[in-house]
Amino acid sequence: MSADLSPLVLQNVTPPLRLSDFRLAAFDMDSTLISIECIDEIADVAGKKAEVAAITEAAMRGEITDFKESLRRRLALLQGVPATALDEVLHQRLRFNPGAETLCAALKAAGLRLVLVSGGFTFFARHVAQQLGIDFMRSNELEIVDGQLTGGLRMQDWGDICDGEEKRRMMLACAEQIGATPAQCIAVGDGANDLIMMGAAGLSVAYHAKPKVQAQAMVAIQDGGLDRLLTLFSA
Question: Which segments of 46-194 does DSSP mark as H helices, in order?
Answer without folding.
Answer: 49-61, 67-76, 84-92, 100-109, 122-132, 164-177
